[in-house]
Structures are given as structure tokens and as C-alpha cells.
Amino acid sequence: RLLIIDFGSQVTQLIARRLRELNVYCEIHPYQNVTMDFVRQFAPKAVIFSGGPDSVTREGSPRVPQEIFDYGVPILGICYGQQVMMHQLGGTVLSGHGTAEFGRAYVTPSDERIDLLGGWFLENKEQVWMSHGDHVSVIAPGFKVYGTSPNAPFAITADLDRHFYAVQFHPEVHHTPNGKTLYENFVRIAGFAGDWTMGAYREQMVEKIRTDVGDKKVICALSGGVDSSVAAALIHEAIGDQLTCVFVDHGLLRKNEAQEVVGMFRDNMNLQVIHADETELFLGELEGQSDPETKRKIIGKLFIDVFQKYADGIEGAEFLAQGTLYPDVIESVSFSGGPSVTIKSHHNVGGLPEKMGLKLIEPLRELFKDEVRALGRELGLPDSFIGRHPFPGPGLAIRCPGEITRNKLNILREADAIYLDQIRKHGLYDDIWQAFVAILPVRTVGVMGDGRTYDYACALRAVTSVDGMTADYYPFSHEFLGETATRIINEVKGINRCTYDITSKPPGTIEWE
Ligand code: XMP
């Protein structure tokens, strides 16, 4: 296994991600915990020093144990990690004026090509992503330079005898397009077989959950979304009936959704699931409310109250399981308290408050969405479940602009079910990030048969996206749109007009509220 020593970079987890893609098992440990005893016990086959925000020129800044350099395994230092390596091995790092470099840069090779750079420099330069304030000005004895950028004369350095490699840029980020190759070469040099898989992750997590939880009880808010479902399945595998899931049904779910989710987890997978049907409570509080933020806040608050009420009923619960993913971790670290404005107050099952006084278990904290899906498959969740489109915590409330009524919700459910049925039938579901119907707060005049109708209009929405942050409308064929509109208008009583929303994000958002 491989040890990543974390100096606090925003992107350390991405290193782990790149290694997992190469089927190499690794663990990230904060530098404070990495003593030489720790290293010996961990027995890594290779070590990576991450980047970090500090400056090695500052007294008291983070270091690695000096003996790690005599431990005899390959080491790769990245950014701050490079500087630590240079500094501790006798080189010089400078900070201050003119040494900073942020963003895209191009590295050119030296004449000598080394194994670490196999597959690199095919066109004599590589795009890399730099983000450093300091830079190395004198490399440590034994090192040579194998790549240079305009602002980093020591962009790539190595001591080939000891298999120490140090780079100034971040090979783990997307903007270093060939970065993965560098990791691939490094782990090959270190002798990894690349045989570690999601199956192994599952086994390790199960062990870890058992150790952490012992004989205590865990509760979990199950939403039916991929994240909370995979988290629940994994924890259930580890501790069985010590886990109780609460499915908060706010009456704003899609057609048959509550039955499907509860049925699958309770009946097919034997989890203990409490179906907290609080439709009356939620719809009661929402009555007469039409402001989007007010609606969101009411739902978010009630959700917490309801969950708390059911959690209080589960005696001896000490842990709260959450399906937090790595992107949530980065976002909350880098953006909390930042200057960005609130577009929408998000509510989701991951947002339960700390004041509940429960310890958190977050078994997906290191994973990205696609890895969670792979893990879900590993755990035997059906594909149809794993590939589901995201569904927002406030549910249909934000697809029903204006006041929410039971009648509108029922109409919306029927229309939405037909729309999704159409999308599935045409084999388009997996090409689309998210698709849904919004019922509009206007009624329009129509003619059906020989009669006049005065019914609601609805809007179909379907978008492509990578992460929900930006999105484009999905280019359905006119035939598909025509057929779907006809079906909805014919089959759903209460809708007589159908439009297709062709707004991208930005300037629109994906949901209507
Ligand atoms: P917007 O509408 O902001 O949505 O473009 C981006 C993605 O986030 C989902 N969404 C939410 N998910 N709680 C959630 O769990 C929320 O309050 C919420 N609001 C929006 C939305 O469905 C889309 O996938």
C-alpha cells in the first residue's frame, strides 16, 4: 500500500482518486500523525508528499520525519511536498517576490528521459497546473532536473538512485491532462501490481465500520438517492440490525417513490427502515407559501425536526451515518464562509445538524460519484437504482412554482411518470443528467374534443451536466417531444399544454426554484 502524507492541499484527495483509478490502495494521513513509528507500522511500498498552503521557509512549518528518506521506498513530492523534500535533503527554497505561479504552465523536458516520464513529452511539452507561492532555487544533492517551466526551473526533479521524485506542479488535477500517466509510472516503479479494486474498498470499509461502531447503534436518513442508499447498504453489511434507517416522506416525492425505496431496502435487502410519513405536517406548513426560499427553508427545518423526532425514538443510537462524498468535503472546506452569494438554500439529507450530538460515520467521504456507483454495484444494488438521476431534497416542491396544492402535486406526479417512461422507452435515460416536469402556476385555454379546457401548463426539463454546476438542455428530437407532449396531455387530467425548457445553466438553474 501507499502512504500519502497530507500537508493540507485542497486537492490531496484527488491523488488518492488517481491511485484508486490505477487500482492501487492508498491512505491519506495528515503530516502531524506521521511519525517514523507510524511509517514503520504502516509499511508503505511508496510514499507521496502532498501539496499544502504553508511555506517551508516559515519556521515551524510542516515537515516529514527525516528518517523517512532512509526508509528505502520511492517517494514522490508534489508542490509543497517537493519543497519539503528539497529543504530536508539540503536544497534551498525561496519565497517572496516573483516566485509565485498559478494556473496553466508548460513544462519542457531535459535531454535525458526517465521512467517516471514514460508517455510524457511526446510533443516536447506538457501542460501542467501550477499553484505555488515558493519555489526551489537550489536542488538537493543527488537530484537532477528533468523538466522546466518558465517560472519553475525545477519543475521536475529526481534522484534516480534513491527513487525520489519531486514535481512543482499538481499532476493529480484535471488541468494536468497527462498527470495520471505520471502516477502510473510512479506506482509501476514502486512495484505495485494494480490489483486493488472497489471490492477491496468494500471489505476494508466494512472492517473499519465494525471497529468504529463496536456494539453501538447507528441511524441514517435514507433518501433513496444513490449516496445515502450506498452508505446504508455498506453499513448494513458491516453491522446488520445495529443500523436503522429513517425515510422521511415529506409528501413531495415522485409517483410510487416511497413504496419503491422502502420496499427495496426493507423487503429486498432486509434493512430496518422506518417510513416516516409526514405528508400532512409538511403540506400543512407549506400551505399558502409561494416564495421559493420560504418553501425551501420550511422543508429543510421540518426535515430536521422530523428526523430528530424519529432518531430520539431509537434508543442508544450513538452514530449518524451520512452519504457525504468527496466533492461535498471539498466544497464545504473551500467555500464555506466565502464571498459567494446564496442562489438557493440547499436542503438535503446530508445536512443534518451537529447539535444532534451524534458521532458521524461517512463511509463515502473519500469517493467520487462514479466510485460510489461502482461500490453500489459491488454491494448488489440494482443498476436501475444506481444510475438514477439526482433528486433534490425539497422534492417536487421546487418543481411546483407558486403555491403547492395536493391537486397540483398529483398532476405533476402523473406527468413526470409519463415523461420518464418516455425517456426510458427511447433509451435516453442514461444520456441525461436529470429530467423532470415542472407544473406551472398558470392555467391556459385549450380545446379537446369539442370542448373548452382550462387547465395547467407544464414544462419538461432535461439537462446534460457533469456536476450540476453548469448544464445544457438536452437536444431531444422533435418527434420525441411531440409524442411525449401528446401523451401527457391525453393521459393526465389537469394538463392541457406542454412546453420544453431550453434554458442552459447559467443563466437558468436546473430546477425551477
Ligand atoms: P440547481 O437548480 O441549483 O440544481 O441548478 C443543481 C442540482 O442540485 C439539485 N438541487 C438540490 N439537491 N437539495 C438537494 O439535495 C436541494 O435543496 C437542491 N436544490 C437543487 C438539483 O436537482 C440539481 O441536480
Write structural notes for this entry.
The chain is of the alpha/beta class and 513 residues long. Helix content is 32%, strand content 24%. The protein folds into 3 domains: 2-189, 3-Layer(aba) Sandwich (Rossmann fold), CATH 3.40.50; 198-386, Rossmann fold; 405-500, GMP Synthetase, Chain A, domain 3. It has 14 helices and 20 strands. A 9-stranded mixed beta sheet has the order 2-1-3-4-11-10-9-6-7, with helices on both faces. Strands 14-13-12-15-16 form a 5-stranded parallel beta sheet, with helices on both faces. Strand 17 and strand 18 (451-464) form a beta hairpin. It is globular. The structure holds xanthosine-5'-monophosphate. The site of xanthosine-5'-monophosphate (XMP) has 14 residues, from loops.
What is shown here, in short?
Homodimer. This protein has 513 residues and is of the alpha/beta class.
Pick out its properties.
20 strands; Rossmann fold; GMP Synthetase, Chain A, domain 3; binds xanthosine-5'-monophosphate; 32% helix; 513 residues; alpha/beta
Shape verdict: globular
How does the major sheet shape up? 9 strands, mixed
Number of helices: 14
Structural class: alpha/beta
Determine the CATH topology of the largest domain. Rossmann fold
Number of strands: 20
The overall number of domains is 3
- Going by CATH, the architecture of the largest domain would be 3-Layer(aba) Sandwich
User: What does the oligomeric state look like here?
Assistant: single chain
Order of strands side by side in the largest beta sheet? 2-1-3-4-11-10-9-6-7
CATH domain class of the largest domain:
Alpha Beta
Query: Cofactors and ligands present?
Result: xanthosine-5'-monophosphate
Q: Strand fraction band? A: 15-25%
Helical proportion, percent range: 25-40%
Task: Report mean pLDDT, rounded to a whole number.
Answer: 92
N→C terminal distance: 47 Å
Look at the structure and name the CATH superfamily of the largest domain: HUPs
Radius of gyration: 27 Å
Low-pLDDT sequence parts:
333-339
